[in-house]
From TrEMBL:
<dbReference type="InterPro" id="IPR052709">
    <property type="entry name" value="Transposase-MT_Hybrid"/>
</dbReference>
<protein>
    <recommendedName>
        <fullName>Mos1 transposase HTH domain-containing protein</fullName>
    </recommendedName>
</protein>
<feature type="domain" description="Mos1 transposase HTH">
    <location>
        <begin position="14"/>
        <end position="58"/>
    </location>
</feature>
<dbReference type="InterPro" id="IPR041426">
    <property type="entry name" value="Mos1_HTH"/>
</dbReference>
<dbReference type="Pfam" id="PF17906">
    <property type="entry name" value="HTH_48"/>
</dbReference>
Amino acid sequence: MFKTISDPADCEVHSVIWFLNAKKVKPAEIHRQLVEIYGENVMTDGMVRKWVRQFNDGRTNGHDEARSGRPSVVNDGFGVKVNEKIRENRRFTIRMLFDEFPQISKTVFVTNRLNYPKLCSRWVPKMLTYVHKTK
């Protein structure tokens, strides 16, 4: 049994695919070997085939290309601003934070990319009454 490698870099996995593809190993066998070394969640068989196809078409590196898209405005300075607002009012909800900072999507607050440990989407009483439960 081989030693498994956890949490590999994407470029590392892509380089292994490139290497095995150069040795004429079939994509299904490449996927089997990747799963054997890196674990079940390394990459799907379809993604391996995609990368093999790209290398066969002349791709010469294993790094992902930079993608265009919405730049992230979440940085340390923004985290400090959100933290100050939350400290002003401990009962801030995600909706209130979104209203306060419209340049950030709600999913940033919901997925808690700001690493704020006590942020929740809405206030819930400790003990739900019968009326609350029936609603």
